[in-house]
Structures are given as C-alpha cells and as structure tokens.
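Quick entry between incubations.
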Amino acid sequence: MRRLPKRGAYDRETVYKILDEALVCHVGFVVDGQPFVIPTGFGRKDGTLYLHGSAASRMLGEAAKGIPVCVTVTLLDALVLARSAFHHSMNYRSVMILGTAQEVANEEEKCEALRIFTEHAVPGRWNEIRQPTAQEMKGTSVLALDLEEVSAKIRTGFPIDDDADYALPIWAGIVPLKLTPAAPIADPKLMHPLEPPEHARNYKR
Ligand SMILES: Cc1cc2nc3c(=O)[nH]c(=O)nc-3n(C[C@H](O)[C@H](O)[C@H](O)COP(=O)(O)OP(=O)(O)OC[C@H]3O[C@@H](n4cnc5c(N)ncnc54)[C@H](O)[C@@H]3O)c2cc1C
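Done. Structure below.
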C-alpha cells in the first residue's frame, strides 16, 4: 500500500471484522484480456473465503481454473464534508484479497461452505430451512479462496482541511451512514400463519 499507508492494516482481526460485517464482495478477474468485476455474496471460515453460484456461472468457472482473482469488500461509514472540494472524503473500511480460488469438490465441505455462506448473510437461518437436495448441490459451484494476501484500509474521523480554510464560514463535518434493516415483510405466498423468526425481526450486522 503506497498512498496514505497509515490507513493500511494487515492484521487478521481487522480484516476478518470487515469481511464479517460486509454482505457483498466484488470479484475481479481477466478473461482473454477483458477484465470483469462481479458483485457477489460470500462467506468466511477462519482463513478461507467462500463464493458460490450456479455451476454455469462464468465467474465461478473462470475463477475455478486457478486464474488470479482480486476480491474487494467495502463498508461505507460516513460522508466527510470538508471546507474545500479537495478535502471531501468518505469514511470507510475496506479489504482487498489477492489470490487464486479452488473449486470445493468434496460434498461435505461444499455443504458446509453453503451453510457458512447462508449464515454469513443471515445468522441463525441454516437450521430453519430445507437443506439442499443432491440435484441442487450438483447445480451449485463453491469456490474457496485462501485469505493469505490480504490488506485492509480504513478512514475514520473528520475532514482534514488546509490550515487557512478552517476560518472559512463553511459547515464541515461528517454524515454517518448505516445499513439499517426495516421490519420484515412476509412473502404473499406464505401458506402458514407464521411470525417472522428472531433472525429476521432483529436482523443486524
Ligand atoms: C448483491 C449481489 C449478490 C449476488 N450474489 C451472488 C452469488 O452469491 N452467487 C452468484 O453466482 N451470483 C451472485 N450475484 C450475481 C452476480 O453478480 C452475477 O450476475 C452472476 O454470478 C452471473 O455471473 P457470470 O459471470 O456467470 O455472468 P454472465 O452471465 O457470464 O454475464 C454476462 C453479462 O451479463 C452482465 N452481468 C452479469 N452480472 C451482472 C451484474 N451483477 N450486474 C450487471 N451486469 C451483469 C455483464 O454484461 C456480463 O458480461 C449477485 C449479485 C449481486 C448484485
């Protein structure tokens, strides 16, 4: 990390905390000279990141060939409003992972990865839902990416204006941003008079 290296963090705890809060990552890879960046869900267990999708997915098919991938995750915490245009910024926590992914072929590990993936998005969900059938497992690819080459970058706090600009009569500060769940809405096709489960009523990251 060359620019603003003080914002860089390489310890696992910091990286894992950011990954565990995020819902979406972006997977970058190059096919025949054409870069693609695909938004997708993910899960993490220890030092492994799991991706999943249709067995027909180009993203998963290409990544499973062992080509280099770059995965990023971003949490946006605030807009930073400075006195000058130049010093406007955002508070964020982000992670970048470089590596090559492997397809998870072992059925047991694949099912465990799908559990981790589901629990990552909605903790408490897996044990309440129908488990995947053999056919569904066959139609699903799971990739594992080692969290070896990873970095985190974090910006916090208020704007950092030029000294001379602090005297200007311009409001400056931050606008915090939060991902806040609203009340769950039942599927109109719900055939039983069920209340939303705890993990939906009190969803939080
Ligand atoms: C929040 C979020 C979560 C997702 N989670 C998953 C997941 O867990 N697993 C999964 O397999 N997919 C997920 N997707 C969908 C994913 O982004 C891809 O669309 C999907 O994986 C198909 O990828 P592919 O490489 O096979 O695309 P292809 O079908 O090969 O793409 C063909 C073309 O479609 C367009 N395209 C593809 N994806 C997108 C996109 N997301 N937005 C705009 N244009 C697109 C591009 O032009 C691309 O060249 C998620 C998407 C979002 C936004």
